[in-house]
Amino acid sequence: MTVPMSVQENIRTLDSHGIAGREIARRLGVSRDAVVEYTGQRDYSPRPPAPIVRPAGSAMTGFETTVETWLSEDQRRPRKQRHTAKRVFDRLVVERSFTGSYSPVQRFVKKWNDQHRQAGEGFTELVWPAGTAQVDFGQAEAIIGGLRQVVHIFVVTFPFSNMRFVQAYRGETSECVCHVLRTVFEHIGAAPRHLVFDNATGIGRRVGQKVVETKLFSAFKLHYRSESRYCNPYSGNEKGNVENAVGFLRRNLMVPEPEAATLQGLNNVLLTRCMALAEATHYRKGLPISELFAQDVAASLALPGVGFDPVRYESRTPIRRGTCSLTGTPTRPGRPFTAALSPLGCATTSSRSSTSRPRPSVPSRERLVGRRRQSSNRRRCCRCW
After folding, report:
1. Mapping DSSP to helix (H, G, I), strand (E, B) and coil, where does residue 313 land?
2. Is 155 within the bounds of a domain?
């Protein structure tokens, strides 16, 4: 019979006062053996419960070898086509005239599987060296010029320091990627040695296991001497830092929806808010993010003397009414080109147009997005982001 904890406490209390064991037993109404047991016990620390081993060999006697053979053969079969405990029980009844119940078979199969379970691959946290950046796209709503719009947010993170940057664009083209990377590089004064992307969207295309990059992005990497890496398809865990940062920045910097007169004004606001996040403490290392980010910058590459111009020039011959088609979009470059049936050089990021012959200069205008016809008296430029 187990003595209650309160009685055990009284036994030890009386014993500490020097009262004899016979007197303690008389006062508390317990046996002298119980007094001796609890006064002599030295460790009262909680103990883990001992596993209860239920006998499973009696009904399974003589069938162990058969079941082990079946389970061993399962190791060469697909995981979804292996013996369950119920299937083992059914086969024993039909093929071996088993007369026992299902429970001992279930316990035997469970014990055998636990003893022969293969070690899984498991997951460990990826360790990123300083000077490595991860990049990814997302979408969010913002109010630009009084209109609510859906913008593409481009996030650049440095997993070593957990520093995060975000910029908003109207598309996810190769020109956008190069432009936002240049913006971040020039802001921090360095170029990361490695750029990790989830896939080749916007900067190339994936053919099987090989990624074919666009000429523009390849030139961008040559310009800044950075290297690119691409994660496996459907493996966002390979760049979990930027995956989390997309949602974090959207919830913390864009709720409620930020307002700005222009897209550039919105990006200036986002960049300022991102720099304010550097004053926080790293969630694991316990140091300010700004101090860790200084190590990221120190491990990165120095910037070249000239910034990369993310433009793509294509030649087109104007057709009737002075329009030309750039990637399937009818565009009217401007009055100086409507009468001249000469090739056009279209810069898709800076909204510039030029001809192979000397012509009056055309001023740069706001970038446009979309596959719609552009009005000649509204904005005369080539299709941009």
Report:
1. strand
2. yes
* Cis bond upstream, residue 304 (ω within 30): no
Expressed as residue numbers, the domain containing 36 is 5-40
Distance CA 261, CA 264 (A): 8
Three-class SS state of 359 = coil
Contact between 236 and 211 under an 8 Å Cβ cutoff? The reply is no
Q: d(Cα 103, Cα 33) in Å, to the nearest integer?
A: 41
CB atoms near residue 365 (< 10 Å) = 17
Give 138's contacts (C-beta < 8 A, 6+ positions apart): 152, 153, 155, 246, 247, 250
Residue 244: predicted pLDDT: 77
**344 & 236 share domain:** no
pLDDT over 90, % of the chain? 12
Residue 329 and residue 366 in one domain = yes
pLDDT for 343: 38
Same domain, 140 and 239: yes
Query: What pLDDT sits at residue 71?
Result: 92
Which of 297, 274, 309, 34 is closest to 154 using CA atoms? 274
Q: Which residue has the higher pLDDT, 271 or 5?
A: 271
Collapsing DSSP to helix, strand or coil, 204 comes out as: strand
Contact 177, 214 (CB under 8 A): no
Query: What one-character DSSP code corresponds to residue 383?
Result: -
Q: Are 141 and 155 in contact (CB under 8 A)?
A: no
Answer yes or no: do 33 and 83 share one domain.
no
Ramachandran bin of 88, using left for φ above 0, alpha for ψ from -120 to 50, beta for the remaining angles: alpha
Stated pTM of the model: 0.57
In-domain check, residue 330 = yes
What are the tens digits of pLDDT across the range 23-66? 998 998 898 888 888 888 877 777 777 776 665 456 888 889 99
- Asked if residue 274 is part of any domain, the answer here is yes
What is the pLDDT, as a whole number, of residue 250? 83
Whether residue 106 is found in the same domain as residue 142: no
130-189: per-residue pLDDT in tens?
A: 888 888 888 888 888 888 888 898 889 998 888 989 999 888 888 888 999 999 999 999
Strands (E), the chain: 132-144, 147-158, 163-169, 194-197, 204-207, 210-213, 227-230, 259-260, 313-316, 324-326, 329-331, 344-347, 352-355
How many domains does the structure of the chain reveal? 4
